[in-house]
User: What shape does this take?
Amino acid sequence: MIIIRVNIIGAGSIGLLFAHQLQICGHSIHISTRSDEQAHTLNKNGVTAPQSQAVKVAASQIDKTTFNESEAVIIAVKQYHLNEILPALRRVPDHIPLIFLQNGMSHLTYLSSIPHKHIFVSTVEHGSKKLNSHTYQHNGIGWWRVACYRGNSELADRLIACNRTEFPVVFEADYERLLTVKLIKNLMINPLTALFNVRNGELEANARYREMMKLLYSEIMFIFPEAVTHCRLDDIFDLCMKTAENESSMLSDIKAGRKTEIEAMTGYATKIAEEKKVKPLIIPFLENAILAIQERKEKN
Assistant: This one.
């Protein structure tokens, strides 16, 4: 396998997961962090996970990071933090591929303004929870699905060589389909788990929640009818069962008093609905419900 020098921007639960798994694959990892303190901790302790080997990584605060030696940059921050890291991305030479891991589809507009020649989008189906500044817990194995937004797919081919049982990787030909399917799954699962404070499996196990999901699915299919063959309701129920013990990222954010990605998830769906002159009712309700909970937490 060809070793790739990878810089990961963001050291949350997903950033730590990727640093750990890609280092185990043999790649050379540098993590760009928000704080000097976290960079110091990562340089000292590496990235660790329960019941797994610790790995050594290099780390630096993002404003002090140089990207000239990188062969790929993975952006592992939440969608609402993308504008904050734009100055750092401008320091990345435009021939170096960028790989985005964000939920939702609102960041597609952001990508169109970036001059880099090779840009990839991807979806992450793993469950991961950050335990401290250098440790994460791997709560569920899933696919890392990568698609080319701009440029060529050579880098994706090299990353797919990292495909392992604990970290399966696959290349998808259609980036819009990939992101649309993930958006639908996120819209179906994240807000409901956060609203009702339940793990993923409860959505399938409870008849009341299943009825709500059927109504929500019908509304979403009015907005994205082309997705019906790629994202069936049964597929979403299956995902709930496969990740039954997982706590969605939105529920974790609510519990921790953090800002959620609800607007990143609902924003694109609402935009497409307006273009198609569809007037959704459930999606705006979910957005306002989650924002109300979020704002109440912020006040407390």
